[in-house]
Amino acid sequence: MDLIERIQYLSELVFDFDFQNYLSINNKSLLIFKIETKKKRYALLYGNDNKNLLEKANKHYVEAKAKYQYDVSTIFADTDSKDDLFLLSDVVLFSNPTDIDTIIIHELLHFYINSNQKVRLLEHISESAKKIGHDVFEKRDKSIHSLLFIQRLTEACIMYNSNTKNFGSSLDAINSALRFDN
Ligand SMILES: [Zn+2]
Known about the structure:
- By secondary structure, the chain is of the alpha+beta class.
- It has a domain at about 1-95.
- It is built from eight helices and four strands, in the order ααββαββααααα.
- It has a four-stranded mixed sheet with strand order 2-1-4-3.
- The longest helix is centred in the middle third of the chain and has 18 residues, at about 95-115.
- It is globular, with a radius of gyration of 16 Å.
- Zinc ion binds next to helix 5.
- Zinc ion (ZN) binds near residues 110 and 145.
């Protein structure tokens, strides 16, 4: 499964959100850039870069582990492209596949919230996700993510792990999803 298929799969599995449909009804494409941390530049991993966004992005290189940028015209003043951009660092891409999954889930959650997508999981959080999320939140740097974000991410990780059993526990999945936060 390549990265775009992985994003589609996780969006559907965890959030019940049809990512391809979102792109097509909004007349958008997705570009995926790799963040090459040693070379301090981005490289095109997926998508048709017909607006030369890679070159524009490289003029404003920012080191990160992962980021979902909704509507690139909001970050690059010199483009009218409304396409979305998913940035994943080589550090993430060198991880094992389940640890890549949790980072994709984490970034997808930011994206749904930032762009006000209708996602069932954003409307209801289970009592167990609230409790586990609260405990996770208490042990972390509270300035990075809100309690509500962590609780939503916990719900997502419980959903992911109950479907895949890729982690020994949901808590392991949540810790994986937050492993670059400290
Ligand atoms: Zn985050």
